[in-house]
Write a structure and sequence with these properties.
Elements: E1 3-4, E2 10-16, E3 20-26, E4 32-39, H1 42-49, E5 56-61, H2 67-75, E6 80-83, H3 89-92, H4 99-111, E7 115-116, H5 123-155, H6 181-204, H7 207-217, E8 220-221, E9 228-229
Parallel strand pairs: 2-5, 5-6
Antiparallel strand pairs: 1-7, 2-3, 3-4, 8-9
Length: 231
């Protein structure tokens, strides 16, 4: 676990949401200077920080909407810390938890050098990483669909399918094993979604993207059917 322990005269903790942010700014003695809710508007946020720049550091918990904020701070050359969500026990373990409390606790942790850091992924690499994460999501869905087909076969106490339906050539006649039309439809839906998930991984997320990422960024090496990423 890495802690951010660089000292700054002013510390800003932010509880971040998609449309709103709760901002807390502490002075060197720990007194609250700003503690209010505002929209996720870059200009409004910069106005709130203006009296304390360039002697302020900004911290936010790692959740899915942090991209714009770190890029804004980078453009303004303001120090930024991304808090590691799972390691921030002081917030997750409290009895009371809401935006106002969370933002102040984050500022206090930052001021005390006890804010656990997460890695701020470079802007030019984020799209590649997110694409690969989506590919992994499709791989998980494919596994779920294959398991559901096998479990449905066992649910109706039918003989084992025999062939490995992970291969598309072995899926002919699987739905027809079920006498009830509704049962057949369940398997047909699974097989249809399975085919779409596989085609999406192979055509919409081509190996060229992995090769490009590997050569240009040193991020990923894709293997057939599996995929291996170093992120």
């Amino acid at each position: 676990m890495r802690f951010y322990n660089t000292q700054h005269p002013f510390n800003c903790g932010i509880d971040l949401h998609a449309r709103m942010i709760y901002v807390c700014i502490l002075d060197p003695s720990g007194e609250v200077l700003v503690h209010r809710n505002m929209k996720t508007d870059p200009e409004a946020f910069l106005r709130a920080l203006a009296p304390y720049r360039p002697d302020i550091v900004v911290a936010v918990e790692c959740m899915f909407t942090w991209y714009w904020l770190v890029d804004l701070c980078a453009d303004e050359e303001s120090p930024f810390v991304l808090g590691h969500a799972l390691s921030m026990k002081a917030i997750h373990g409290g009895k009371a938890k809401h935006d106002q409390i969370d933002s102040q606790k984050m500022a206090v942790l930052l001021r005390g050098g006890l804010l656990p850091q997460a890695y701020v992924y470079p802007a030019e690499r984020r799209a590649t990483r997110d694409l690969l994460r989506r590919r992994m999501h499709l791989a998980h869905k494919r596994g779920e669909l294959l398991a559901h087909g096998q479990n449905t076969n066992r649910q109706y106490h039918l003989p084992a399918i025999g062939q490995n339906i992970a291969y598309q050539a072995n899926r002919d006649g699987v739905a027809e094993r079920f006498a009830d039309p509704a049962g057949q439809k369940r398997i047909e839906v699974d097989l249809s979604l399975l085919g779409y998930a596989e085609s999406s991984r192979r055509t919409e997320m081509p190996g060229q993207m992995g090769e490009k990422a590997w050569q240009g960024q040193g991020l990923v090496h894709l293997r057939p059917q599996i995929g291996t990423c170093r992120l």
